[in-house]
Design brief:
CATH class: Alpha Beta
Radius of gyration: 13 Å
Oligomer: single chain
Number of helices: 4
Shape: globular
Number of strands: 6
CATH architecture: Alpha-Beta Complex
CATH topology: Aspartate Aminotransferase, domain 1
């Protein structure tokens, strides 16, 4: 179990129209100007946009894998520890984060991609 930064980058590459912005300690990800994720290589974590109910469920079920990051605009962001999650689950959460920010027509044209293998 566990997802490398390289594998995470491949997952991100499978999503449509992802825009990357590099900061000193992290990379942020957006679709058509709407942010949906962050990656901190040094801590091997990502932050992903989720619904509030999903944020609470993930953290309650597996606090060793997920942490509450923040809430904003009716969404709950979670920190995901890459070393403690499998590729299929991360792929689904990443797609959901992207879907929550992407326009409906873009989502309709881009179903959930399969997770790349290590």
């Amino acid at each position: 179990m566990g997802v490398s930064s390289v594998q995470f980058a491949r997952m991100m590459d499978k999503l449509a129209e992802v825009e990357r912005a590099q900061a000193r300690d992290y990379t942020s990800f957006s679709v058509r100007g709407k942010r949906f994720g962050y990656h901190w290589p040094r801590t091997k974590t990502v932050g992903l946009k989720q619904t509030l109910s999903e944020q609470l469920a993930l953290v309650a079920e597996r606090p060793d894998v997920f942490e509450v990051q923040f809430t904003a605009g009716g969404f709950g962001w979670v920190v995901v520890h890459l070393t403690k999650i499998d590729a299929d689950e991360l792929s689904e959460l990443l797609y959901e984060a992207w879907r929550l920010s992407a326009p409906e027509l873009l989502v309709d044209d881009n179903p959930l991609p399969s997770a790349p293998r290590a």
